[in-house]
Here is the input.
Amino acid sequence: MGDRLAGGTARQRPHLTTRSLGSARFAVLAALTLDGVLSAIAGALLLPLYVGAIPVPISAVISGLVNAALVWAALQWAPTPRLAALPLWAWLATALALTLGGPGGDIVLSGAGIMQMAPVVFIVLGGAPPAYLLWRVTSRPARS
Here is the structure.
């Protein structure tokens, strides 16, 4: 490796191997997982956005795009797609936790009328883009 010049030393960089990036990899994946939680909270709180009398779930779409970006970034750092799915799992767990009642009985993802479908719309639109990205990564044939 790196023997372009005769008699030269190999240009290996031991400080850039995967073994030395273990703590940085853990920190980045933990930060991306926390970002998944924050994406779920922000998306859920902005979900009841209305334009006139019509509810517009634009925060669910934005949350889905943010989640896809988080999973893509995690794919760059994680050794396996299962580990790269941590931001998606954190987002999904937080979104499901927001459908439960809190200590005062308040539920973040609820509503009357058409807003009763808000949790379903939020989970589908927020979870489909990163799930599709993970599916594409795991279903493509291995390079030889």
Notes: The beta strands are 50-51, 54-55. Residues 113-139 form one domain.
